[in-house]
Amino acid sequence: MSRNYSHLPQKSTMQKREINPTDWLQGFNINHGIEVTGGQRVLYLSGQTSNTADGAPMHAGDLVAQFGVAWSNLKDALAAADMTPSNIVRLNMYTTDVDAFMAAAGELVPIYAEDGCKPACTLLGVSRLFEPELMIELEATAVA
Q1: What percent of the chain has pLDDT over 90?
Q2: Nearest-angstrom CA–CA distance, 44 and 90
Q3: CA distances from 138 to 5, 10, 42, 86, 134 (A)
Q4: pLDDT, the chain, mean
Q5: Which domains does the chain show, CATH number per domain?
Q6: Which of 11, 14, 16, 141 has a CB 3.0–4.6 Å from the CB of 90, allowing a cystine?
């Protein structure tokens, strides 16, 4: 579904400036902070998980597969707002298994990095998500 933004100026003056007082987060393709100026729209996305369109959880026990589906669902939500992953300025990742997440980081980081997403980011360990089979939930804020 395409939205009509004809009432907004056609040329965006939005600028993003990466804030990185140290460079250790660069290995995860994330920033300490992002300063946004000139943004006209802010999109707050609910947590996205590896659920089908009817809500059924997918890929029980497979963190990497769940991340891929959650990321795809997040991209669908962005597209519905006429945005792309490059518009994401904040990405919160909730996982039920931080150790498994860190062990799989080499597979997970390219999933969002290849889509042009280099956000400010938080990884949070939680005891469970809304479905016991789910291991990852992605929550984002995007600006255009």
Answers
A1: 69
A2: 10
A3: 27, 30, 17, 15, 11
A4: 89
A5: 39-143 (3.30.1330.40)
A6: 141
Contact 98/105 with Cβ under 8 angstroms? no
Q: What tokens does 62 get? A: 């497979």
User: Can you read off the two tokens belonging to residue 22?
Assistant: 């140290």
**Residue 57 is which amino acid?**
P
The dihedral of CA 106, 114, 92, 47: what is its sign? negative
Q: Could you tell me the two tokens for 113?
A: 């990095």
pLDDT in tens, 79-137: 999 999 999 999 999 999 999 999 999 999 999 999 999 999 999 999 999 999 999 99
Cα separation, 129 vs 122, whole angstroms: 16
| Tokens 């498994």 sit on residue | 100
- Distance CA(91)–CA(93), nearest Å, equals 6
